[in-house]
Specification:
Length: about 280
């Protein structure tokens, strides 16, 4: 029996969610909810879309994946472990002194981490510069920028969005985690950004909005973006509505979801719930 693209992605996302829980347990807390929410999105990116060499993170021909949100590093570490760039055994060093896997993403520490993105609202500006630079060199690599809905409240993001359309950076794809949450509460209470699709369209982007936990919908959206991708053309954005804590019911309903503290005896329960959900869906 052949494994479909969607099955490959689903299995990778499941393993990544386990990695996220394992890393989270090392610190007893962290940005676990967001990471579980975007595991499907990052699995699609790393398993199905991105051109890279796991054992050569500086391979000049690679597509670029820029994580704007440094606090989502735990999600990227899970993807890098699944990809084979970071050994799975190294995940237990997460957040410890001297580890290559600090709690906030640092490009100089971690193989495969292209930028240090903790200062929110800067990732897309860097991505625009990188896409322009690659085009000037005559290269046809794609640049993917992962950003959060909180970053849509930053003016610099919209300057970059307009700049990308102005310069017709057709190999640039932004993916936004529309988890409807920020550190200070629900996005709609902090600074509403809806209707987000219309804003991106008005900025000149090929815009799609999907359920970010529906792997088939994600694959279709990434395929449509890839179809559009050309050196001179419209940049693409995929707005992904994700659910915090996805896959672990205990965490899907947590009130304090931006930075979760999880009791010692809850981690095993989280793992069991994750496994039950995965087996149940098969
Ligand atoms: C420029 C900047 N301002 C403020 C912060 C502090 N901060 C860290 S996470 C965060 C929430 C941003 O929203 P989002 O990324 O959507 O949050 P999440 O979905 O992870 O809850 C803020 C304001 C920051 N890192 N950078
Ligand atoms: Mg958010």
């Amino acid at each position: 029996m052949t494994t479909t693209r969607a099955e490959k992605v689903r299995d990778a996302a499941y393993r990544m969610r386990h990695h996220i829980l394992d890393m989270g347990e090392v610190q007893g807390q962290g940005y676990v909810g967001q990471a579980l929410g975007v595991a499907d999105l990052l699995a699609v990116t790393y398993v199905d879309q991105l051109r890279f060499r796991a054992d050569d993170p500086h391979w000049p021909e690679r597509d670029r994946f820029l994580l704007s949100t440094g606090h989502y590093a735990i999600a990227l570490y899970a993807a890098l472990a699944e990809a084979g760039t970071v050994p799975v055994t190294e995940l237990e060093t997460y957040g410890s002194d001297g580890s290559r896997l600090p709690m906030s993403g640092m490009a100089s520490y971690t193989p495969g981490m292209e930028i240090s993105g903790g200062s929110l609202g800067h990732g897309l500006t860097v991505a625009v510069g990188m896409a322009l630079g690659l085009r000037l060199k005559g290269r046809e690599q794609r640049v993917f920028n992962f950003l959060s809905d909180g970053e849509l409240d930053e003016g610099s993001t919209w300057e970059a969005a307009m700049g990308a359309a102005h310069h017709q950076l057709g190999l640039l794809t932004a993916m936004v985690d529309m988890n409807a949450l920020q550190a200070d509460g629900p996005t709609e209470n902090v600074l509403g950004i809806e209707p987000a699709e219309e804003k991106w369209e008005a900025a000149g982007w090929f815009t799609q909005r999907v359920d970010g936990n529906d792997i088939d919908a994600l694959l279709a959206a990434f395929d449509a973006a890839a179809e559009q991708a050309r050196p001179v053309g419209r940049p693409s954005v995929i707005l992904c509505d994700t659910r915090i804590g996805r896959g672990v019911p205990l965490l899907e309903t947590r009130e304090k979801a931006h930075f979760m503290r999880i009791d010692e005896d809850e981690w095993q329960l989280c793992r069991e719930q994750l496994s039950e959900g995965y087996e149940g869906a098969r």
